[in-house]
Write a structure and sequence with these properties.
TIM Barrel; 8-stranded parallel β-sheet; two-stranded antiparallel sheet; alpha/beta
């Protein structure tokens, strides 16, 4: 397992991070605990959760994931775990957070309330990486960065990060922190995969120039890159099988991930992986890790069987000709997710 630094901070993490967003909904507690143990034994020291998990977000089970992670954390040496969680920001029509009756502005009151609740559920007195979950461009960055700085100074948080942020928002946060002399964002957690390379258009350069690390989520494009939707397949219980059978926003999301262009690119990526002798899941995770602006790739599973092909990417470096073959597909099928 390789290790990289988060931004300009002192924190060094494994280059694979276990995400936990299904723990407590699609994945029951006992299975989740076994998955976490398996990852820990394999050398993963970085774990990501959020106050709003599990997904899909529902009031009936909000907070279950942090409770499960907290239970597991008690069985491990705390200093050996790099723990990340998030405070819910506005969801911008993606979904309505079940936290605090949907009142999730990134102001002082909400952030303080969220961190105290997360610390209790996780059973710890500090969070290594505390992230804003969706940006809040209507709330002053001065207020957001100042309260995050308070948490760092109080010892409740080691470093701060953001997620689903824009180039403007990331630069605004950095300039605000510099002007105020506060803690800044060391990481950004955005969608990035073989099927969604938009991060490279602008945000990658911001990360390089400002010393911010991407910790990408959805490296398998919501499972599409595993090939399970190829040929019109709709696996029972799979996320986009459900979404595509629904209406409105869920159906729109499903079509973004599963469409003719994304399935065509997936088939071509799988052919490249097969020629290299790699499982498509292993291939997609290895590709994600192999970028200079990426510190650690966040993976997610719902079953124990899904862990092994991810771990197979731990020390894998794809050769230049394979990376070039990927780039050729990306040029010919541009932005398959829109």
């Amino acid at each position: 397992m390789q290790h990289r630094r988060l931004g300009k901070s002192a924190i060094v993490v494994s280059d694979i991070c276990m995400g936990t967003m299904t723990f407590g909904s699609q994945t029951d507690e006992s299975t989740a605990l076994r998955i976490l143990d398996r990852c820990y034994d394999a050398g993963i020291n970085f774990y990501d959760t959020a106050e709003g998990y599990p997904v899909p977000p529902e009031v009936k089970w909000v907070g279950r994931t942090e409770n499960i992670v907290g239970k597991w954390l008690k069985t491990k040496p705390r200093d050996g775990i790099i723990l990340a969680t998030k405070v819910s920001g506005p969801s911008h029509t993606w979904f309505r957070s079940p936290c605090r009756e949907g009142m999730t502005a990134l102001d002082r009151r909400n952030i303080i309330s969220a961190i105290d609740a997360s610390l209790t559920k996780l059973g710890t007195d500090y969070i290594d990486l505390y992230q804003t979950h969706w940006p809040d461009h209507d709330t002053s960055y001065d207020e957001t960065m100042e309260v995050l700085d308070e948490l760092v100074r109080a010892g409740k948080v080691r470093i701060a990060g953001c997620s689903n942020e824009t180039s403007w928002g990331l630069m605004k946060s950095i300039s605000t922190a510099e002007r105020l002399g506060t803690a800044r964002y060391q990481t950004i957690q955005n969608n990035f995969s073989l099927n969604n390379r938009r991060f490279e258009d602008e945000l990658a350069q911001v990360c390089r120039m400002e010393g911010v690390s991407l910790i990408p989520y959805s490296p398998l494009a919501g499972g599409v890159l595993s090939g399970k939707y190829n040929g019109g397949a709709r696996p029972e219980g799979a996320r986009f099988s459900r979404y595509l059978a629904m209406e409105g926003r869920q159906a729109s999301i499903g079509r973004r991930f599963v469409n003719d262009r994304s399935l065509s690119s997936t088939e071509r990526f799988m052919a490249i992986a097969a020629e290299a002798g790699l499982d498509p899941v292993t291939f997609a995770v290895a590709w994600s890790k192999q970028h200079d602006f990426v510190a650690s790739t966040i993976v997610g599973v719902t079953t124990e069987a899904q862990v092994d092909p991810i771990l197979a990417a731990a020390d894998l470096v794809l050769p230049a000709d394979v990376m070039a073959a990927v780039d050729k597909v990306s040029r010919e099928i541009r932005y398959p997710m829109g």
